[in-house]
Amino acid sequence: MPKLSLAKLERHLYAAADRLRQEGLDAATYKDYIFGLLFLKRCSDQFEAEHERIVGRKVAQGLVKDEAERRYGENPDYYDTFFVPEPARWSYLSAKLNDATRPYGSRLDKALAALGESNETLEHVLDHIQFMRMQGNRRVVGDDALSGSHAPAWEHVPTLQRRVRVRAAGAAKTAFPRGAWEREEIAQPRYCP
After folding, report:
1. DSSP for 28-48?
2. Which of 43, 16, 44 is CA-nearest to residue 31?
3. Fewer CB in a 10 Å sphere around the end CB: N or C, the chain?
4. H or E segment at 58?
5. pLDDT tens, 48-96?
6. What is the residue extent of each domain of the chain?
7. What confidence category does residue 5 fall into, taking pLDDT thresholds of 50, 70 and 90?
8. Which helix (H) or strand (E) holds 77?
9. CB of 144 within 8 A of CB of 138?
């Protein structure tokens, strides 16, 4: 993937936010969808790295790759990270991005549900994020906001994850009145890995 500049990342993010606002969502609502996707991407990335490590170790011990995949790669007991089932993996979701056989929002709903079902600690945590939720007679987030011409923004989610952590403290400072931060009227955010 080509290197992404901060300016280009900001353009992608603003374009995505503008698209969600066109759908009639305010920031308090669309943050759930954006953070839900970021969480899904992060879990998928960590799972893939752990998956490669586990399967690679078993292959190095003399097991055939297909057998290692079957016995260890898809077994949640061998993972220290969240186990991500196939329909919740980013590679699977990316491959289905322009597949019109089913609404993309339903794929994302199934991905979040599968992630919650496969990990006891996530059970019912992601239930409030529903891409197929109806408001009146239309969906809250339409498929055109999730795919199509906006697909290139998806490939930059890993870069976004890194930048969100780095820039969160600076953004919090601008959200509060001038001077309140320095006078410690507002607790300073702590870095959370």
Report:
1. HHHHHHHHHHHHHHHHHHHHH
2. 16
3. C
4. helix 27-60
5. 999 999 999 999 999 999 999 989 989 999 998 899 999 999 999 989 8
6. 6-157
7. confident
8. none
9. no
